[in-house]
Amino acid sequence: MTTILALDLGTTTGWAMRLADGIVVSGTMEFRSGRYEGGGMRFLRFRSWLDHLEAGAKKIDLIHFEEVRRHAGTDAAHIYGGFLAHLSAWCELKHIPYQGVPVGTIKRHATGKGNAAKDAVIAAMQARGFTPEDDNEADALAILTWAIDTQGGVR
C-alpha cells in the first residue's frame, strides 16, 4: 500500500498519513518563530520534522498539500510560501511526488460544499471516525481522504 502524507501548511501545520499497513495517523505541529530566532528557523525545523516523519514511516511515496490561492493577510501568505518552497525542495531532493489540492476541492469532497466552514470539515472528519484536535488536523485528514478516495492513493 502507498504511504501518503497530507499537509495543511502553516504556522500550525496539520498532517495526516496513511502508512504502508493502512493505519492512519494524524496531528498538528507548531512552527512559530522563537523570540531569539531568525525568521528562517521555523523552516529549518519544518524540514527536520519532514525527515522525522519519513524516518518513522520508513518511506513516503506521495505528498498532497492544501493549495491556497488567496490569503487574508500578507504575513500568512509569506509563511505559506516559505513552507511550500521548503516542501517542494525537500520532495525534489527525496524524489517524492507532490501535488497541491485546491481548498474548494478538499471542502467539497469532505462536506459536499466547496465553501464549507471549518466546523463542517471537522464534523465531516469526525463522521468518518477521526478525532481531529482542530481545523488544521481536520483539513489534513480531509486531504488524505480525498487522495485515497479519488486518486486511489497513488499519483
Fill in the keyword field for this structure.
single chain, 155 residues, alpha/beta, Nucleotidyltransferase, domain 5, 5-stranded mixed β-sheet, 5 strands, globular
What's the SSE blueprint?
Blueprint: E1 4-8, E2 12-18, E3 24-30, H1 41-57, E4 62-67, H2 74-94, E5 98-102, H3 103-111, H4 118-127, H5 135-151
Parallel strand pairs: 1-4, 4-5
Antiparallel strand pairs: 1-2, 2-3
Helix pairs in contact: 1-2, 3-5, 4-5
Task: Describe the protein's architecture and organization.
With 155 residues, the chain is an alpha/beta fold. It has one domain: Nucleotidyltransferase, domain 5. It is 48% helix and 19% strand. The protein has helices at 41-57, 74-94, 103-111, 118-127, 135-151, and strands at 4-8, 12-18, 24-30, 62-67, 98-102. It has a five-stranded mixed beta sheet with strand order 3-2-1-4-5. β2 (12-18) and β3 form a beta hairpin. The model has no long low-confidence stretch (mean pLDDT 94).
